[in-house]
Amino acid sequence: MLNLSVLTDPAFCPHSLNKFASVMACGNGYMGIRAAHEEDYTQQTRGMYLAGLYHRAGRNETSELVNLPDVMGIDIELDGNPFSLMSGECLSWQRELAFANGELTRSVVWRTPAGKRYRLESRRFASLDQLPLAALQLSITPLDEAGHILLKTGIDATQTNSGRQHLDEASVRVFDEHVMQGVYETQDRTSEVVITASCRLSMLSESCFTAKNRQILNHHALNVATGDTVTLEKVIWVTHRRDRALSQATFARNALAELTACATTGYTSLLERSARAWDRVWRDCRLTVTSSAPEDQIAMDYAVWHLTAMTPAHDERCSIAAKGLTGEGYKGHVFWDTEIFLLPFHLFSRPDVARGLLRYRWLNLSGAREKARRNGWPGALFPWESAASGQEETPEFAAINIRTGMRQKVASALAEHHIVADIAWAVVAYWQATQDDAFMRNEGLTLLIETATFWMGRATEANGRLEIHDVIGPDEYTEHVNNNAYTNYLAWHNVASAVAFMARFGREDPAFSQNATRFLTRLWLPRADEDGVIPQDDTFLSKPVIDLSRYKAHAGKQTILLDYSRAEVNEMQILKQADVVMLNYLLPERFTREQCAANLAFYEPRTIHDSSLSKAIHGIVAARCGDIASAYAFWRDGVAIDLGSDPHSSDEGIHAAATGAIWSGVVQGFAGLQVMEGELHLAPQLPAHWQTLAFPLRWRNARLRVAFDGETLNLDTSEPVTLTLWGKRIQVSGQQKFAAADFLTSVNGTATREGGDDA
Questions:
Q1: Given 96, 476, 589, 594, which residue is catalytic?
Q2: Per-residue pLDDT tens digits for 664-690
Q3: CATH level 2 (architecture), domain 9-281
């Protein structure tokens, strides 16, 4: 096993229960299980989720990721005292998520209100080797004198999504003295879930089963001598289906057989198998850094851990929810986050997974076409929030204003159309990194043509040119504007890419080509002024400026909305996140380094960073401009979104895209990875307190290993690769070393890229 870092919960705290339930959640891309404690606390939210399992609970509800029956809860009673760290005394505490094998462990010494000490140790994991498998162990040792122990655990189907019930209980059964099974159906009868669990105790006990009020439970009562340890081992098999190819009885019987085989194998061997699967992930994906700040390595391991645990690599009908599989935030919906912030990790580490994420969009094209038609446009308009069906899942209204009693319409689904071009950008990025012609000739080109067709129909004739009106860019504090720079440039890139790949694959369509030529020559692309600043939209630069310093000090809290209405914010130079900086990041070949620096300097003071994704992108652009100190500060702020001191930062799930931004901040920021004009560029620059940085990289048919110590870059590639290193084009074959001093010529220690289209 590789020597990886661990994530630690420093102490039991009732205020941070849900934060650590999210950040320490176990998962494998198929299943996610929140790290709620075995014992109950009023404040904690339990959760188990399966990728792609959505349901709408009622007429006025939205489709959401179903919170499944709980299998991790255990009622523990010691000498008549319910075990709870809210009573008695916690004498010692250790809780860790081991990234190497995905096991969550906890060790507690607890003194009961009556004064007796017990050691309780728990372990759990979700298997990366067998995706429907999860397992846990709970061990209890009386330390002072013999103890009487009662344990109660099973399948608790009273679990809901914040009070919304999605599942009906079809049947519950007990098969022998150890095994129970529950079969559940979504209320619309479209999906079926079977949960099978085996509970075994290491000592003889008085035991029985009960089934009542949507709970099937296994009860154990026993006496344990001083110093002896009793261990409860629970193995769980969770499976679901949308099709009805098998009868319900056969489907449930197959699950029982799988569970029985796993239970016979036992916790330790099952964990070893899962650990071997994780070992392969780490060898393919791990970033390693030598830093005087050990938390930097923990952050990188945390990112890769969750990027793997949240991604449904097994099923291209699913994608990555905004909270992964760690909580109910955003209803488990899929946003543009997947293509822009999460796809790059997979693209350069596991391109087959990136392909599956793009096929999710292709498989849901019908919903995008329907939305476009419904709004009077051709082509495909992808939903701002997506789930299983490809339909728009964004709620029509936000929460009720408690002062007026009125609901405010949610504008994102109506105008945040840049998601269409974001998906097209990701399709092109995938092909550039893989040159997967089979995908691009079929799914990729279809996506490009449908999205390009949308933009050509969406553009408006105005001011003697084509413009794009009434949109919202990534900066959601500026709504319903014309000629948003991010949207216009990405739309142009979308149409130009469709034209290029149609020519590449011999796809002829004279009418499309004529419309595309008109669009590309006449679409207005906001131009940089003499200082290099690109206006965010037609009116932004004419709006008044206010001092945002006190709001920036509370980034992510949206405190600006306590002092100003959204309408007032919309009429000032106030950004949630800077569109133009994001644009500079996504299309680096279109802008000079000086323009990127000018836009960063202009827009950052006007940006509150209330989006969890904002600072990471600022950091990458700062690194590309040579400001490594600022880049590192932005990167650390991005890490702190989930791993910082705020006890409630991740209560409803981690910020999934922020984990992708951690990886990108290192690889696309400090390692200087860019793809320009389809060519790979590297230009590593390390923060002052980093001595080394190393990572694996996939590029087309090659597997590379990149290692940099501040002076020498070591490249090891399985196939010859042509790339641009610190501005100079080279070919690498096998193992080669390059001295940074031989490449760097500029006064600030970084090579200045020549050229770049004048925006």
A1: 476
A2: 999 999 999 999 999 999 999 999 999
A3: Distorted Sandwich (2.70)
